[in-house]
């Protein structure tokens, strides 16, 4: 994985990134101006009204016009920031979701200390999950006996998405509050137990990036790190096909796949002669 982090903002490969970065930059410059401005004013007051030989410190309230004008100017600028810079981005990211049929839809279930990533498979339907089915090999508690769940794919800490296509994530948590953070996508959303929170994003550059947990969620919070792959559509389809193939191979050994049940009786046949010794 390349390092995408430096002194300022990380690499931006998000369709929303330019607007978010602009807002961050404008706010930072504005804060520096305010900090330096108020700092200078503070120093001016310390010197101007200090006690010195022949002068008592002046503590009477001074009514200057200039600070009032400055305050009003700052207020107007802050309203401008909120209405014209911040709200349009908020609307794009939090309200104007793409239709699910035009997007790749993924469920992500956070837990201490991993990201469980759930794809609906070929049928486009997520199978039901049940807490009582959760174990080491089935961290999502996916009910494989349900028809919608048979083709569902899951990975741990490996999120694949296609480039230049909207992605909708339904974010959940199994235990404590985590925060799903894709720095290069400018995506950060808390995952809260008992809530399913939708987020969406669109990546515009392929590569291998990082998923981080941005909420101190326990003793091993630091290793709650996943890989975020932005693939070409072709590679994304290949990833899904490979996962589906390995799922078919796995379920071929079990009894979940109906196709695997057909050769089962012959397998029992050799057991019968052994049993007949006891008769
Ligand atoms: Cu976490």
CATH superfamily of the largest domain: Cupredoxins -  blue copper proteins
Helix and strand string, N-terminal first? Answer: HHEEEEEEEEEEHHHH
CATH architecture of the largest domain: Sandwich
Oligomeric state: single chain
* Biggest β-sheet: strands ordered side by side in the sheet: 3-2-1-5-8
Quickly name the level 1 CATH class of the largest domain.
Mainly Beta
Bound molecules: copper (II) ion
Number of helix segments? 6
Strand content: 15-25%
Structural class: alpha+beta
Question: What is the β-strand count?
Answer: 10
CATH topology tier name of the largest domain: Immunoglobulin-like
Largest sheet composition:
5 strands, mixed
Rounded mean pLDDT score: 87
Q: What's the number of domains?
A: 2
Distance between the first and last residues' Cα: 64 Å
Rg for CA atoms: 29 Å
- Which shape, going by the Cα principal axes? elongated
Helix content: 25-40%
Return residue spans where pLDDT drops below 50 for at least 5 consecutive residues.
254-279
């Amino acid at each position: 994985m390349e390092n995408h982090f430096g002194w300022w903002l990380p690499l931006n490969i998000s369709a929303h990134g330019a607007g978010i970065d602009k807002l961050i930059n404008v706010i930072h410059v504005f804060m520096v101006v305010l900090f330096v401005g108020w700092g200078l004013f503070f120093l001016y007051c310390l010197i101007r009204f200090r006690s010195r030989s022949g002068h008592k410190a002046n503590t009477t309230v001074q009514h200057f016009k200039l600070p009032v004008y400055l305050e009003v100017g700052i207020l107007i600028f802050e309203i401008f920031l909120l209405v014209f810079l911040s709200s349009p981005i908020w609307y794009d990211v939090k309200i104007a979701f793409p239709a699910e049929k035009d997007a790749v839809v993924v469920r992500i279930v956070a837990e201490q200390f991993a990201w469980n990533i759930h794809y609906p498979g070929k049928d486009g339907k997520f199978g039901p999950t049940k807490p009582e089915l959760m174990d080491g090999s089935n961290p999502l508690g996916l009910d494989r006996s349900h028809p919608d769940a048979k083709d569902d794919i899951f990975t741990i800490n490996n999120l694949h998405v296609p480039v230049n296509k909207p992605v909708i994530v339904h974010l959940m948590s199994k235990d404590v509050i985590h925060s799903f953070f894709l720095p290069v996508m400018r995506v950060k959303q808390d995952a809260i137990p008992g809530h399913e929170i939708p987020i969406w994003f669109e990546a515009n550059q392929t590569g291998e990036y990082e998923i981080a947990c941005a909420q101190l969620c326990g003793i091993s919070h630091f290793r709650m790190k996943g890989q975020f792959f932005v693939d070409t559509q072709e590679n994304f389809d290949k990833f899904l096909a490979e996962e589906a193939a390995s799922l078919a191979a796995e379920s071929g050994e079990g009894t979940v796949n109906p196709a695997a049940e057909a050769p089962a009786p012959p397998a029992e046949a050799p057991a019968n002669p052994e049993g007949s010794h006891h008769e």
